[in-house]
Amino acid sequence: MAVLSKKNRSFSPDKLTSNRALFWIAAVFAIVMIAPALWVLGLSFKDNTLLMRGSEAVFSAPYTLKNYTDLFHSSLVFRWFLNSMVVAVGQTVGVLTLSSLAGYAFARLEFPFRKTIFVIVLFGLAVPEQAVIIARHQMFSWLNMHNSYLGLMLPGMSSAFGVFLMTQFFRAIPKEIDEAALLDNTPRFRIFWKVLLPLTMPAQATLGIFTFLLAWNDYWWPLISATKKDMYTLTIGIASSQRNFAQTEGLGFLAAQAVFASLPVIIVYIFFQRNIVTAVSGGAVK
Asked: What residue ranges are annotated as transmembrane (predicted)?
């Protein structure tokens, strides 16, 4: 009887009403957030001549795939896609590698001025990118690294947030694990690579997702560093198409480019969303 009464209290009408209210509030916010994406998706399936009369044509038939087939006739779009993929993947790998090594060093190793250096790294979170853009541009010009993949990737590899995140995760792992491995004369790097690094996979997945997203959508630095069309990333390429060919190509074609550009980010999130939820809920620490 006591068990039944507890169950009845857990499914009380007040609690059920509260859950339904929260559900509908969340549903409304979700619709508001997804509405612009659905609008762009609808535009991408409309004929450009119909959209010239008014964008409200998106709500009625007919629909067409012509805007997507036109993408295959533009070789630059796929070149821009390749550039974005190389830059985003390379930058993500670089951030994960450097942040993991730095986080392990700050959390586990003792070396001179460790706390001071960590504070200096955290200062990077407070310095906006625009404050150093002139010095960065001059440095990369001197090194002749503009219009290159390495020039597009290197600035994004220094992630103060990534170092802070990985440091906190390594600190949350009990030090008894290291001590047990050291008793077996296990080298430091092997402890890092074989024992501790696998425990931080949820944090790395989260950091990797955010890094890939920022690198894929980055507009500011590629706009400055990439001056040749064949080195444009997808964001710069789409912007240049909108500026120069919006009247001839049409709104539907630009929407199709935007949908095409967003597909990799959506696919990556779908595959790694479980790791993000685990990291946010603190499952990695447990």
From this structure: 21-42, 80-105, 117-137, 149-170, 191-216, 251-272
Report residue 234 as tokens.
């997808």
What is 98-144 written as a DSSP string? HHHHHHHHHHH---TTHHHHHHHHHHTTTS-GGGSHHHHHHHHHHTT
Top-tier CATH class for 74-280: mainly alpha
Residues 164 and 125: beta-carbon distance below 8 Å: yes
pLDDT tens digits along 30-49:
888 888 888 888 888 888 77
The rounded distance, in Å, linking the Cα atoms of 236 and 228 is 11
What is the chain's length? 286
Domain ranges, ordered by start, for the chain: 74-280
Distances (CA, A) of 281 to 22, 180, 278, 285: 20, 28, 5, 9
Decide if 102 contacts 199 (C-beta within 8 A).
no
Convert the pLDDT of each residue in 88-102 to its tens digit. Answer: 999 999 999 999 999
